[in-house]
Design a protein that fits this description.
2 strands, mainly alpha
């Protein structure tokens, strides 16, 4: 009996993919919670860890990847919602805002996945939390902004600094 595939079903850049990655990051950061922006930043660093002299990046270094952060926030938010619906993530609200924390069920769930990609994901998440976990929000923002500055100048044609160029 052959397995029937559903058309237009993708895991890449889905709530499931980003939810599992966020869950792994939250487990690495446990017991501390992360707000959505820090989770987005950590997700980016986990995937592109080679850009910051870390372990091998999980995804290839595509040019113009600064656009990833623009769409990543909404997808990660959907992934977190999916993980919360399964009891793996807890939303915490306080005077500082909303943050997310791995639940007691999260680590056993993450530990049950042992594919080479998951093991690399776990290693990268642990490295990101250890390396950038104590960095304040402004420092982290400046670090990530510096990537965009490098990529923009690296992948865009240079423009004349003299105020006028030839056509």
């Amino acid at each position: 009996m052959s397995e029937k595939r559903q058309p237009n079903v993708t895991v890449f850049n889905s709530a499931l993919e980003t939810g599992v990655r966020s869950l792994v990051i939250l487990v690495a950061n446990f017991p501390d919670a992360l707000d959505l922006q820090r989770l987005v930043d950590f997700d980016y660093l986990v995937i592109h860890s080679g850009d910051v002299n870390g372990p091998v990046s999980l995804h290839p270094p595509l040019p113009m990847r600064e656009g990833e952060l623009l769409v990543r926030r909404k997808i990660i938010e959907s992934g977190i919602t999916l993980m919360m619906s399964r009891g793996l993530v807890t939303r915490i609200t306080d005077a500082e805002g909303i943050a997310y924390q791995a639940s007691d069920y999260a680590k056993p769930f993450v530990d049950s996945m042992a594919t080479p990609y998951m093991l690399s994901l776990i290693d990268n998440a642990n490295w990101v939390v250890e390396t950038f976990g104590n960095m304040n929000t402004i420092e982290l923002h400046n670090l990530i902004s510096s990537f965009f500055d490098k990529w923009t100048t690296h992948f865009h044609p240079s423009q004349s600094l003299g105020g006028g160029g030839t056509r």
